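Recall that a protein's primary structure is simply its ordered list of amino acids. Everything else, from secondary elements to tertiary packing, is in principle encoded there. The following example makes that idea concrete.
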Amino acid sequence: MRKTKNLVDAGEAVGIVAAQSIGEPGTQMTMRTFHYAGVAEQVPLGLPRLIELVDARRTPKKPMMDIYLTHEFENSEKKAIELGEDLEEVDLKKISVIAEDFTNKSLTVTLDESLIKEKGLTVGEVVKKIKAGTTGTVETDHNKITIKFKLALRSIRRMTNRLRDLHIKGVKDIKRAVVIPGKNGRFIRTGGTNLADVLTRKGVDTTRTYTNDVKEIEKVFGIEAARNAIVREIQEVMDSQNLKVDIRHIMLLADAMTMDGSIKSVGRHGLSGQKAGILARAAFEETIKHLIAAAIKADEDKLVGVTENIIIGQMIPVGTGTVKLVMKKH
């Protein structure tokens, strides 16, 4: 016999149930972080990570990627290691010592030739990058580069910081890349993330490569992919703490965060601060601000939500409160 009964009854307070189902285990979470094997960085997986996700932070505290490889690369350790080395970002501070001379308004960059060779570079290539990345006069003496400026002292310090982070080789923002043996062959785990650039590299499987930066997924793949990433990331947080939450509650939260075509946080700058009802917005945070703004515009509260009806002592439009009966007099 075919089922006709709805899985969720009309008028069910799904939002409240989802909030309770995620919030209650959320309070039980430990503040401990979890070490990912191979990457010497702590990746927040408990409450800090959950807060990071629902706050829709621009970048995660510890961005990372799992780069899956094509069949040819995942079965060859040599090729996988070579790709990992090619992906890892080399900036100037990794291969040199930079000294400031404020008296002569100059910088001295002393290149480490053995490190440069190890990274598959030449001194000439590095000098070329330095010349392109500075506004000063560059003088080269083998591995010693002197850059003279006609700038204020404060600007010289700024230029030093800029040169330290000067990109020489690899993929920008990929600070570390480690080859890890997985169930179905090798993959590369990175500290730092740059999805758009990594996907263009030969040997990278574009269908499986993943980043924990939800905003970056939105930028590269669109809002639907970002919505799936939010579900996956929250589910991972719950699983890591051994907490069982029905995935439909998490899906509802992800839908609410992405329904307008961009990722919104749950707090006052996102969903709660943009509720339709004036009283609902005022009940959450910045009460006076919302009431004054509504008074200036002569806004009207239609009392469609739960919060505003509780405030004025009316039946809430949930469950039996959604049913309205009209009696006709004959």
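The domain at 275-322 is CATH 1.10.150.390 (DNA polymerase; domain 1). Residues 74 and 182 are 9 Å apart (CA to CA).
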